[in-house]
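Predict structure. Chain length: 319.
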Amino acid sequence: MYIVDLLGIIIPIMMFYSAPLIFTALGGVFSERSGVINIGLEGLMVIGAFSSIVFNLAYAETLGALTPWLSILVGTIIGGLFSIMHAVASISFRADQTVSGVAINLMAVGLGVFLTREFYGKGQTDMITQPFYTQSVPFLSDIPIIGDIFFKGIYYTSYIAIVVAIIAWFVIYKTPFGLRLRAVGEHPMAADTNGINVTKIRYIAVILSGILAGMGGAIYAQTITFNFSGSTIVGQGFMSIAAVIFGKWHPIGALGAALFFGFAQSLSVIGGTVPFLANVPNVYLVIAPYVLTILALAGFIGRADAPKANGVPYIKGSR
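Prediction complete.
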């Protein structure tokens, strides 16, 4: 029973930390499958986190328990709108996609901090009063062993993230849109020749990446930090990019990589309850996610093949 109790502690916290990474990594999969590198996932998470917290603080008394769900919707919409700048720069103007993504990151943090000071007169917002809370799933939590591990004390957003990953897999690999998306990312000229609007598909993919990253940022802010500051999203977007690469640009692969990185982040929380980690200094557990990210990329990036047209602007009629 000790193992069951230990898993009952580890798995809910792992899924809790993984959910924002899953959403954001799926956004990266859509964008890069279309041939557009999106380094700006970090900034899109930031703007999603900022807008969701501001909405939550403004409407918590009016909307009550519905507030965090509507705040996710706001963060999702703002993330999608913000990503249009990256789409215009990298697709229409054929700017360097990496530079455009970095600009999105810098702009999002600067804008978020500036507006926070304007709205609240300080470097961070107040703490929200209507965050997400852990819950037990009715009936399923009563199942012996499995119920204690997977369905008690968990956020519903974690289950939604897994469902969205499965939907993303179906869309990319089982629908006409997914076929066009992959064709555009592999050989845009051939896709164009067959009547596929390369620009339209890439715009949709980049905006989808903004929607999902904004959702990830909104969930992170309302389940982990409960407020917004310039340091709310620190490295989460880059970790999501690593999950895209580690997962070989596949939705289910990105899901697995995000769960792995979520587990790495949870070590600093659960370290005291795990016997073989109890004596490890906390600072090592805090940096573990970033070290494991580097090691994962160093071990797998050479064997992971990106879409062939990834990062290459498409000029109609060019080879």
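Summary: The radius of gyration is 20 Å.
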